[in-house]
Design brief:
With about 200 residues, the protein is an alpha+beta fold. About 25% of the residues lie in helices and about 30% in strands. Strands 1, 2, 3, 4 and 7 form a 5-stranded antiparallel β-sheet that branches. The N and C termini lie far apart (about 75 Å).
């Protein structure tokens, strides 16, 4: 004789509701944004991270400027300035384009070629072709000033380096080097990164 058992199932209540994937992603995004903003504003490394971002942006825009110079057949340039803001020395860099009337702001790519101010706690030392030009820092009101670093329409550039130092201690934070062909390299503390 075969015995069969039948099991009765209890009805399941469908009233319990969890979070949707979209709701979890939005909550996670908000937490990440708040955490990153707090850590950038609170930690002492926030200014160092901002400086690194600015320098990496400078390297990227320099490559773009060289490409634009070749494509458009016009010279572009990088102009470093030392500004006085409320008695505090601040370095900035901006981009120029050679036109028939002289060096002016680039006509195209205004978002890419925007002016950047560096933190007041750093100073720049520029060297071109083994000649220091740290004192060559034009004033804010000089119109048509020739940039220190020129990206020629031929695809070449003036070779050199910029040392970024901590103002109060003189410690080397970054070294930005480039050659005649416009190959830029950003070195932390001026040292090559080890290859693994």
């Amino acid at each position: 004789m075969s015995a069969t058992r039948s099991y009765a199932r209890a009805p399941v209540a469908l009233t319990a509701r969890g979070f949707s994937l979209l709701e979890l992603l939005v909550a996670l995004f908000v937490v990440i944004m708040v955490t990153s903003l707090v850590s950038l504003n609170v930690s002492p490394g926030g200014s160092d991270l901002r400086l690194e971002t600015q320098l990496r942006n400078l390297v990227g825009v320099a490559g773009y400027a060289l490409d634009e110079a070749e494509f458009l057949g016009r010279d572009f340039g990088l102009l470093l300035r030392e500004l006085d803001e409320d008695g505090e020395r601040v370095y900035s860099y901006e981009w120029r384009e050679r036109r028939p009337v002289g060096w002016r702001e680039p006509e195209s790519g205004k978002d890419v070629f925007r002016r950047e101010k560096l933190s007041p706690d750093v100073e720049l030392e520029l060297a071109l072709d083994d000649a220091a030009i740290a004192e060559n820092s034009p004033r804010e009101d000089e119109e048509g000033t020739t940039p220190q670093v020129i990206f020629y329409a031929s695809g070449e550039t003036t070779s050199g380096a910029i040392d970024v130092r901590r103002r109060n201690s003189g410690d080397l934070l970054w070294r930005l080097e480039w050659d005649l062909l416009g190959r830029f390299e950003l070195l932390r503390r001026g040292e090559e990164e080890p290859e693994f």
